[in-house]
Amino acid sequence: MATASETTLVTTRNESGTKWWTRFLDPSEGTLAALLLLPTALLLTLIIVYPVCRLIWTSFQNLSLTSGLPASFAGLENYSLMLDDPVFWETTWNTVLITLITVPGALLVGLALALMANLPFNVKWPVRLSLLIPWALPLSFAGLIFAWFFHSEYGVVNDVLRRIGFEGVIWFNSANWAFAAICLTIIWKTSSFMALIILAGLQTIPRSLYEAADVDGAGRLRQFFEITLPLLKPAIVVALIFRTITALQTFDIPFTMTRGGPGTSTATLAMYIHQNTVDFLDLGYGSALAVVMFVLSMGVTAVYLRMIRARG
Fold this sequence. Notes:
The chain is mainly alpha-helical.
């Protein structure tokens, strides 16, 4: 015969089991959100957190596949070598310079293209399709196309210069001209991406604001600076975040156009990482370089996010 205390214990266990099962079948909003986010969190941990942690760990090791020696802990040796490496500083400066030139350039061109695509055309799809074409082209393909455009003998650019009375330029024999050609190519390739994001922002601006401004006698220029530009700031910041991060990781276009030449005058940090890891098989030093690029990208993202939070 069960005592009253034993009966109470069994009842309590049954009730707790029933509550757990009921909570699982009919979860609260917080529990449901956690369950839905769990697969995404696991996937992000697998494809982002683990590789980043592995990269940081490898950067503290002497790991060269050509030495025939096993990996050994090196501490900060790879980072100290980096400080004395002139190629690292040159490629980092080239990367920063490409970012400072192409990001504002792509923003200005993209803004102009977005405003043009937002005009009340009778048929809008050809204009918007023209924005998609440069963005859809592979980066290496765009680099090869513009390498032909800027070819010193049979390139389109030099042909146009000669037809209007100027001498042709040997673009890829000069560090400055080669760098300019790369920057122009990157601006052409990435401005369409900026235009698509800004165009999406333009679509959210109510038409009634412009109608009220017309009633008040505001001209087009004043409407742009007092209505369009302020309301486009969130879209512009989003476009700048994505474009700046990809600019810091620039690889394909300089690689296909100049291979970093003349010398290393147009090489980027991503190209130097590729050279150390793929060509030289020095995974320790290449990982240290990649950590620097990762820190730069995260730093830029943090600055932009702080700007968004401050305006919000």
